[in-house]
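Lecture notes, structural biology module. Today: joint structure prediction for complexes of two components.
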Amino acid sequence: MKHDVLVIGMGLSGLMAAKTAADHGLKTMVLGKGAGMLQAFLEGIDLLGYYPEDNPGMLEGVRPALENLIQNHPEHPYAKVGLEEIENGLKAFAGLFGTKSYQYNGTPGRNSLLPTGIGSLKPSYLIPSTMNAGKGILSEPALLVGFQEFGNFYAAYAARNFQRLPQRNEDLPIRGESISLSDISERKAFHPAALALQFEEDGFRKKLAEKIKKVMKGENLVGFPAVLGLKNPENVKLDLEEQIGAKVFELPILPPSVPGMRLFEIFKDHLRAKGVRMIFGFEAGLAIQKNGRCQGVILKTPAGEKVHEADSFILATGGFFGGGLQAQGDRIVEPLFKLPVAQPGARSDWFQYEFLGRRGHPINQSGIRTNSRLNPLDQSGKVLLENLFLAGRILGHHDALREKSLGGVDIATGYKAMRNLIS
Amino acid sequence: MKKRIAIADRSDQCIQCGICTEYCPVVRATGRFSGPKLAGPDAQRFRRPQDPPEDLGVGLCIGCGTCDLVCPSGVNISALNLMAMAKAGDEKGFNLRNWLLGHTHLFGRLATAFSPITNWVLGSPLFRGVLDRLLAIDKRRSLPAYEGQTFRQWFDGHRSGGKKRVAYFYGCYTNTNEVDVGVAVVQVLEKNGFEVIIPRQECCGAPLLGQGDLEGARAAGNRNVRALLPVADAGYDILFSSTTCGQMIRCEYPGFLKIAGAERLAARIFDVCEYLMMLHDRGELNVDFQPRKERLPYHVPCHLKSMGIGLPALDLLQLIPGLEVIEIDAGCCGLGGTYGFKKDLFDVSATIGEKLGKALKAFGAPVAVSDCEACRMEIRTLTGLKAVHPLQVLRDAYDGSHGRKSAGDGTPDDLRK
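The predicted structure, tokenised, for the full assembly:
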């Protein structure tokens, strides 16, 4: 069965491209090697947290910095997308949530300071609504709740780090408490998703609320690791608030990420309702290329190789984690289409001396060079495949973790790649 | 003590992201299983081939293969777990309960010949109490009833005709417990101009693999490949209607079990819905369907996902005018073939299935559709709904009987009459 569009990659950029295609009525299929990297990393959507790179302070207003970046770095993915389409992409992303009570929120043009599970503040542009109330830790007495059986979050450690923040009055109380769940969990299952499912059970919440009330010392704000439900986190939050009589918020914690899983499910529901077929679990083999066009992609399944054909293709296979880029000893390659990868000149230039240096490591900037339509280019600047469009981390020429653009670049380029494809 | 199982692996590709653990239906249901990552690639790094495995609850793996699908790094997680389970079985020695659950095909002929007696015995509280106490086969789970006539007996009295020819692997359950599925497959293929031939075949070995009996599974595989490969080589495509049998023959024979000739066989063996959709893509499918104004829920079997062929049943049923078939994305049904019959796993199985049960009940249709017989069996248990194979729906759409023919309630035909 031939599709209008085949999206390769099931991370945020691929899903965003698929959503844009499906909303446009295109017959779309998404292939993923695994279930994508949303579940591993994503908490909030970062647009731009630090710029320029030698400026140590985090950005509050994002727009002027974005304008500067677009002007100064024409190869940056944001420059290929443009300010207006970045904003349109974010709007389209927001549209994914419809009338759901669980949303991603933010102040237009400004970063929020998102309190994290290690007791730090991180600039983020859009944050899950269940994390909103966390901003209160700078001005209100707060209790952080962890669980003895759950090692991904240590409440006392986070509380101590929050206490030391320069933005916060040292005398404002903040405490961490570790609560045992063994006697209230029927399943005795304590991995993030298992916990999140139990938070959706009335009985579990009721017993937990009893325990929390016993350790509260009049705090109006209570923080939890981000495991408050998979399907209806807002309902879980509201019910807990009512039961313990305080505002409740979630803190982003170590991976795997429950908010990432929620987002994946929301995308899946949206795409399924639009008739998009998703196949995950299998690696795409070589792409079939002829006369400057891609004709199909070979999917390697245990049942043999299967060719998937389409008119156009989106390559959103990610970077080193996702497998879109591979480091092979002394050079970096793109395995599927064998596209040329812009990369540091020599192996010795991949990393710089300081591990957490402000400039970041050059290897993280490597990726595929594209034209303004996000088609891949060869060394001489000629378009290689006119019906192939790139999105997400594979584009390189940015350092998402360093500049805090993880999520923002994926949404902007996933959206824009599909818009270019359509026009 | 025999020690023959050594484990080859891709555990070093694991980047420790933990996505497999999060999506594992067993981890979500119980803390007794350490999870696919810990029991698989993590433990693997500390195992030497001849060492007995540590008790990480590998026996709790339900074998759905979700871990393999969600892994971003291509680690053979479920295979590592299966190997560890096999190794654990090797160390512990013979287990009569697991042997019986792996060999139900041996009793099929006898059970069918005396089906009224068999079904009475299988349903009797006394017998179930004995199974429960002596063999740890949980009495809360009802055993499937046997039909009075096997599919094979029906087919032998049937004359198939058509210009094209195609072979059919029907599988044990269709043969002895759900004959109408096989009948529907034959009738649909005949509606499309095929003469159906039935090659020599036996149990695919999936129930044995589920007990960690690699040698038994491999032996069954060898015998099936020997019987089926000449049919494939003679130019026949071979179709299956049971997802689990099909996944076993097409994926596990050449992949995990590495059976000689299985790869060549795999190239000619197809899911029956996939095959009909291939016909449709070439414009050769008979689409003379009677309209059916109904919304039906469709449950995707885990082993269908493992094959990576998409959702051909959904594509196919959408060709019936007026019929809306909606994918219910509620994960594993929890039965896991023989898993849910085991007393120590019954609760885990029931917890896993809760989500699907709720989703199907909320959907509100009297009948659900799924390709896999174990999933259908579990849907009936979870919801009391009827559950049918996609080809039963398709067959009924050709003649417009729309469900009046396919009972789908798990009762054998002779009991129903």
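Point to remember: The interface with chain B takes residues 1, 29, 33-37, 39-40, 185, 187-194, 197, 255-256, 261, 268-269, 272, 277, 279-283, 299, 301-304, 306, 321-323 of chain A (CB under 8 Å).
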